[in-house]
Amino acid sequence: MYNIEDIQDIAPFSYDKNQKKAFLDEILIDLTRYHRDRCTEYANLLESWPCDADSLSSYYDIPYLPVRLFKMFDLRSTGKEDIVKSMTSSGTTGQQVSKIYLDKETATNQTKILTKIVNDFIGHKRVPMIIIDSKAVLKDRNMFSARGAGILGFSIFGSDKIYALDENMNIDFEAIAAFLEKHKGETIFLFGFTFMIWQHFYQALLKSGRRLDLSSGILIHGGGWKKLLDQAVDNETFKRSLKDVCGINHVHNYYGMVEQTGTVYMECECGHLHASVFSDVITRNPHDFSVCDFGEEGLIEVVSVLPKSYPGHALLTEDSGVVLGEDDCPCGRKGKYFLIKGRIKNAEIRGCSDTYAAKF
């Protein structure tokens, strides 16, 4: 098995497709056998798969778990005594949620790789941070929700942090004004979930008639677009609207999920989501699950080198998307770049932003 210290110094978007293929083949095939030997449920799945784990030669052929299985089973590749953190996915009332179990090694590795990926977009220096949410979401520190995990995960990039919203999800104008005055002239990092930013920050600013100067800010947001797309608010509208009320110029959406925490797909300056060296995205034809060509819409499969305490290294999501290309994005980052088209028909709502938006 690989050791994270052996790979953590690799620049996250530095490998071309041939280097990355060889790198992921070795690690992900090893992970497949590792989980087979330590997780009975995963071993049972492999037995019914039309391939032998011992003869795998490409990570494209690794059996992929539907993410919904994490709602139905407790999938672990480590003993209960080694679990240091349990996380749950976001879900609407009455929905089952995914349960993800982390040992110390996996939790640490997630943080290390998340840091490398995000630093490529915001720089390596920790900066003042505004979290566009309420700190009330973090009250239960033992059973992390995806929303709480996202906030805590990205908080490592902040040198001084405030929450923009109070416990009633109203903007705390006084706290924000004091924070901006304190850090005048500095780069400000902002983080939040897409619908909450729109509903409780942008809409509230618009209604109040007040303006905030966040022209030196960098915003990272994620968690799903379903509710906003229903309101005809797409990515460009979102960015333009925020710039109108607070002057922010640098906005990056990201795609990720609690089942592969630490593996995020960041949106570049060209509006494309990018797979780092440590992960990949594969689109599959929904009729026969063959690999789609670039430009062809299909089901999204995500692979990651990080899940070691549970068999989450190859997952079939319930999202559809299009891989646009590889190694040739105008932003200069190597690896695949892609777009998410949305949830497949009849799939459950998931994602921090979308499940919260369901209340509205």
Write up what this structure looks like.
- It is a single chain.
- This protein has helices at residues 4-7, 17-38, 40-47, 69-72, 104-122, 146-155, 173-182, 194-208, 226-230, 235-246, 352-357, and strands at 65-66, 83-88, 99-103, 127-132, 143-145, 158-163, 188-193, 217-222, 250-255, 265-267, 273-274, 279-284, 298-304, 314-326, 336-343.
- With 360 residues, the protein is of the alpha/beta class.
- α2 (17-38) packs across α3.
- Strands 1, 4, 6, 7, 8, 9, 10, 11, 12, 13, 14 and 15 form a 12-stranded mixed β-sheet that branches. It has a 3-stranded mixed β-sheet with strand order 3-2-5.
Order of helices and strands: HHHEHEEHEEHEHEHEHHEEEEEEEH
Structural class, judged by helices and strands?
Answer: alpha/beta
| Mean residue pLDDT | 90
Radius of gyration: 20 Å
Continuous helix count:
11
Major pleated sheet: 12 strands, mixed
Please report which band the strand proportion falls in: under 5%, 5-15%, 15-25%, 25-35%, 35-45% or over 45%.
15-25%
Helical residue percent band: 25-40%
Q: How many strands appear in the DSSP assignment?
A: 15
| Alpha carbon gap, first and last residue | 46 Å
Inertia-based shape: globular
The low-pLDDT segments are none
